[in-house]
Amino acid sequence: MEQSESEITLVPAPNIGSSTSNSGTTPLERYSITELCKQCQSQIYRHHLAHAHFSFLQFWLFVVPIAFLVMTSGILSFFNSTSLTHGDDEVYIGITIGIMSVLVVFFGTIQTYYNFDVRSAMHYNVVTDLDRLRAELQVMKIKYMHGDRGRQRKLVITSRNNDDGSDVNSSNTMITSTHRDAVKEEEDIGLISQGESFETIQARYQQCLISCKSAVPLKIDQAYRMIDSQMELCSSCAANDYFESVGMEDWQLKLWLAAYDQLTEEFTSTTHWPMHLPDSSKMVHLALYKVRKVVKNGKHFWNEDVEYDYESGVLLQPSAKRPVATL
């Protein structure tokens, strides 16, 4: 049995230049919110794929056969009770009805053993709860960025007043002459959404996972763990310099979310999905290849002189015909 996902421990943001509150809670910071969004998105896709896989198996392996056997045995029982059957035919139909009843019991026993319907419902509940938490984190991140920009504007105004020789005194702002990035607002320290700390968000996150007693299939879980490790290895100084040169903020979060989206798309686009789970290593390599191609060709998206084939992800010659979208 693999390690349960409820044992995942979230690590708060590095405590740089900030302190925890008097109650012992860790304040939410931008780094913490980013990591929480990544974890929520990863778990949402894992449980969503698990829900689709288990619900498919439940429907086609148990619901349809049991319903067909019950319907057929009912029709044969009604037909056998009429005067149309007599002699050996009545005996054969009675034997057939008995065999179907045994098959119904057999499928019901296997269904109880695998419990696909209950497991599918557990994963679906996790998806709905984590999706609600992710939406709240995104709102909190927007509010955090808005407050950060407000602090930057106040810092510029303060530095201008200091250059003019005027005395600036604010009860909500602490200013240091050597480190401008050390400016803080007491009203914005730590908590962003109605006093929620990192510990409360962590408790909600872990509660969502603990409520699911069904493990995600190994191939799905292995694929998302593998893409996390591959993305960590790709987060080099060269990548940081590239995304800073194109002016992309929070590129790590955006790149991770794009990788999760592409990996999920690779799973759902396979031939026998959701009946059969494909090879996780192949899915990860395809997803990383397509994400890299999108990032590499993204700079040509707004260039009218360069044509881009959205289906194959290949740059075309300027004289090539632009693909026409059809409804």
Gist of the model:
The protein has helices spanning 30-80, 88-114, 116-163, 198-210, 218-234, 237-245, 251-268, 280-297, and strands at residues 173-174, 184-185, 307-309, 314-316.
Characterization of this structure:
Helices cover 61% and strands 3% of the residues. It is built from eight helices and four strands. It has two domains: 1-216; 218-327, no CATH class. The protein has 327 residues and is mainly alpha-helical. The relative contact order is 0.12.
Order of helices and strands: HHHEEHHHHHEE
The helical percent reads: 55-70%
- The percent range for strand residues is under 5%
Number of helical segments with 4 or more residues: 8
| Rg estimate, integer Å | 29 Å
Derived structural class? mainly alpha
Number of strands: 4
What is this structure's SSE topology?
Layout: H1 30-80, H2 88-114, H3 116-163, E1 173-174, E2 184-185, H4 198-210, H5 218-234, H6 237-245, H7 251-268, H8 280-297, E3 307-309, E4 314-316
Antiparallel strand pairs: 1-2, 3-4
